[in-house]
Amino acid sequence: MNDFIQYPAIDVRGGRVVRLRQGDYALETRYGDDPAGLAERYALAGAKWLHLVDLDAAREGGYRLYPLLRKLTSGTGLRVQTGGGVRNRDDVQRLLDVGVSRVVVGSLSVREPDEVFDWIAEFGSEHITVALDTRQDTSGAWRLPVHGWTESATETLEDFAGRYARAGLRHLLCTDIARDGMLQGPNIDLYRRLTGLLPSVALQASGGIRGIDDIKAARDAGCKGVVLGKALLEGQLELSEALQC
């Protein structure tokens, strides 16, 4: 059975489908104002999962895509993993109650790991995806920027990910910030290192995917999934073709 998952991604800001370059809100490209319609097209192309991000909530808190979620979970057949602005236990519960399959926890997973450990235990490892955005510093260490990426956690990516693995984490989404939205290829060396260190974790590669070869490279590096964003929106990659590889 093939357990490699391709996650078409929809990032929403102000009701529009957008993409940011390297996570910078000032570097936004807009791709229309119908995220529900785009999700339906992805479902018709054969997608089983959708990765949905509330960019407004990620910046300001207060997840606000519930009406869209209800459409997606009831009308498309897609399983949804979603995040943005998840700050407490009630946020997780509310999203799961709407029918979300996995709740994505980003910056809070770095600031308050013990709290997220508790959520993994309470809600189950299949319902939480920890998203770690990382940047390599001048010494070569992979750091985890927080607070708008202006500060970094003292622990390295490997340290943090290892702690989560020991706490029972199953799903980890890792983005190399330098490659996010750049269509320059994923950081295969980084993903190969993580999959070697964390054999019990299903790693999702995010950032830089350009086409079929990048998807295959991520799979061959041990990743269990890839997030497909800008390449789909720009027409550089056809989802139906990607799903066949």
UniProtKB/TrEMBL annotation:
<dbReference type="InterPro" id="IPR006063">
    <property type="entry name" value="HisA_bact_arch"/>
</dbReference>
<protein>
    <recommendedName>
        <fullName>1-(5-phosphoribosyl)-5-[(5-phosphoribosylamino)methylideneamino] imidazole-4-carboxamide isomerase</fullName>
        <ecNumber>5.3.1.16</ecNumber>
    </recommendedName>
</protein>
<dbReference type="GO" id="GO:0000105">
    <property type="term" value="P:L-histidine biosynthetic process"/>
</dbReference>
<keyword id="KW-0368">Histidine biosynthesis</keyword>
<feature type="active site" description="Proton acceptor">
    <location>
        <position position="11"/>
    </location>
</feature>
<keyword id="KW-0413">Isomerase</keyword>
<dbReference type="GO" id="GO:0005737">
    <property type="term" value="C:cytoplasm"/>
</dbReference>
<dbReference type="GO" id="GO:0003949">
    <property type="term" value="F:1-(5-phosphoribosyl)-5-[(5-phosphoribosylamino)methylideneamino]imidazole-4-carboxamide isomerase activity"/>
</dbReference>
<dbReference type="InterPro" id="IPR013785">
    <property type="entry name" value="Aldolase_TIM"/>
</dbReference>
<dbReference type="Pfam" id="PF00977">
    <property type="entry name" value="His_biosynth"/>
</dbReference>
<keyword id="KW-0028">Amino-acid biosynthesis</keyword>
<dbReference type="InterPro" id="IPR023016">
    <property type="entry name" value="HisA/PriA"/>
</dbReference>
<dbReference type="InterPro" id="IPR006062">
    <property type="entry name" value="His_biosynth"/>
</dbReference>
<feature type="active site" description="Proton donor">
    <location>
        <position position="133"/>
    </location>
</feature>
<dbReference type="InterPro" id="IPR044524">
    <property type="entry name" value="Isoase_HisA-like"/>
</dbReference>
<comment type="similarity">
    <text>Belongs to the HisA/HisF family.</text>
</comment>
<dbReference type="GO" id="GO:0000162">
    <property type="term" value="P:L-tryptophan biosynthetic process"/>
</dbReference>
<dbReference type="InterPro" id="IPR011060">
    <property type="entry name" value="RibuloseP-bd_barrel"/>
</dbReference>
<comment type="pathway">
    <text>Amino-acid biosynthesis; L-histidine biosynthesis; L-histidine from 5-phospho-alpha-D-ribose 1-diphosphate: step 4/9.</text>
</comment>
<keyword id="KW-0963">Cytoplasm</keyword>
